Amino acid sequence: MGDRKQAGDEEFRAFVVGRWPRLMRTAFLLAGEQHAAEDLVQSTLERVYVAWRKVAAADDPEAYVRRVMINAHARRHRRRLREFLAPRDDSGIVREVADTGDRISQAEDRGVLLKALAQLPPRQRQAVVLRYWEDLTETQAAEAMGCSVGAVKSNAAKGIAKLRAIPELSGTVMVGGRK
Questions:
Q1: Is residue 66 part of a domain?
Q2: Containing structural domain, residue 40
Q3: Does 169 reside within a domain?
Q4: N or C: which end of the chain has fewer CB within 10 A?
Q5: Which family, according to the similarity comment (predicted)?
């Protein structure tokens, strides 16, 4: 029994090491600041560790973990929705540690984009992050968000439309495949 637990621990450790940058990026885009993202990933991994056998047996363990993270984020901010959606000043956004393979981290206007993203309602923000930054299919995003494909399409379209309407983003950052 001890060998099986140790093997499970090693498998979990390898999963965390391999997926940490992507989990942090998703959490950062959802939460809007580095410390909140770290807390979100940590609490998600705590929940996942307890059920690791079930998670590891899933068809797509990363999708399972992403769903746990999205649910944790939604629970955390449900009560403070108005405060969460309020525009933040420059001191309210802590810089993310850059992922050299992430094209968004290389954009000069990253701060403007993150501020704009923070202003979207949670479901629109989730849909935009999962579809355009995590590059999930509509079906994968729907599974992660616990909604229909149509809801993902609608929320992503509304979110992208709101981002396109922000003057600071026009002409500087590609949003949803267009300038």
A1: yes
A2: 2-164
A3: no
A4: N
A5: Belongs to the sigma-70 factor family. ECF subfamily.
**171 is a domain residue:** no
Residue 119 maps to which CATH number?
1.20.140.160
What is residue 25's three-state secondary structure?
helix
Tokens read off for 89: 């000043």
Distance in angstroms (rounded) separating the CA atoms of residues 31 and 93: 10
Distance CA 170, CA 164 (A): 6
The rounded average pLDDT for each run of 10 residues, N- to C-terminus, in the chain (179 residues) is 76 94 92 90 94 90 92 72 48 46 53 82 90 88 91 94 82 46
The 3-class SS string of 122-169 reads: HHHHHHHHHHHHCCCCHHHHHHHHCCCHHHHHHHHHHHHHHHHCCCCC
